[in-house]
Structure formats: structure tokens, C-alpha cells
Here is the input.
Amino acid sequence: MLAPACSTAVIPLQVAGAFHTEHMAPAVDHVRRAAASLAPADPRVSLLSNADGAVVTSGAEAVERLVTQVANPVRWDLCCERLIALGVTGVVELCPGGVLTGLARRTLPGVETVAVKGPEDLPAARDLMNRHGGTR
Here is the structure.
């Protein structure tokens, strides 16, 4: 049996810097030293790592993944695969740009999205969460 062919799409993003690339490697040690002073609690909701889409259940692991992610690529494709596997039907983005919401509309058909860009977007986010069963 032949495996189905995979297709890849590259979407250029307008970004302010070389984040998530090897060019940020010198910053990793600085971030690691700052992170060493943290005492993170374990998350109360599911966190996904943008490195591989893994569900992260430990606060310490979440911080370590944030540190290493400074100089490593984001794997949006693996995050989307995990979201689909988890049965996600709605996404709320808490970043001011709305970039991830736009990507989600293209890569997660049927998943409702809301980008919280300011306080005026909070009612729509609350409504989406109420319609889709809250947070996980």
C-alpha cells in the first residue's frame, strides 16, 4: 500500500526579527538564566508546545520549552495536527497581531476563531468559549 503524498505550503510571515531561528541562539543563555529564577506552577489547561505540538502538563517543562524555542523553528503543522486530534472546535488567540488566527482559518477548516487584539474582542472570545465548551 502506498502512503498518500504530502504537500507543503510555505507562507511568508511579516515578522519583526529572526525569532525562532539559529540567529537567536545567543539569547538562549540569557533567557535560561532569567527562567532559572521562576517557580512555575503546572498549567490548569492544556498547553501545546509550538516545537512539536506536544501537550505540556508540567510548568517546569513549559518554561524549558519556551527557553529552547527562542532559537528553534515553530512547527505550526504539528500544532494543527494535535488540535485536530484533540477535537478542538474553537481557537482564541491572545496575541495582538492575529497572525495565528489567520493561519488557523486556512489550516483548520471548520474551526471557529477569535483574535483578542484588545478589550473590545473579549465578549466575542467569551461567546466562542461558551459555545464550544470552555477551555481544556
About this structure: Residues 19-75 form one domain. The beta strands are 47-48, 55-56, 90-93, 112-115. The radius of gyration is 17 Å. Helices lie at 25-35, 59-69, 76-85, 99-107, 122-131.
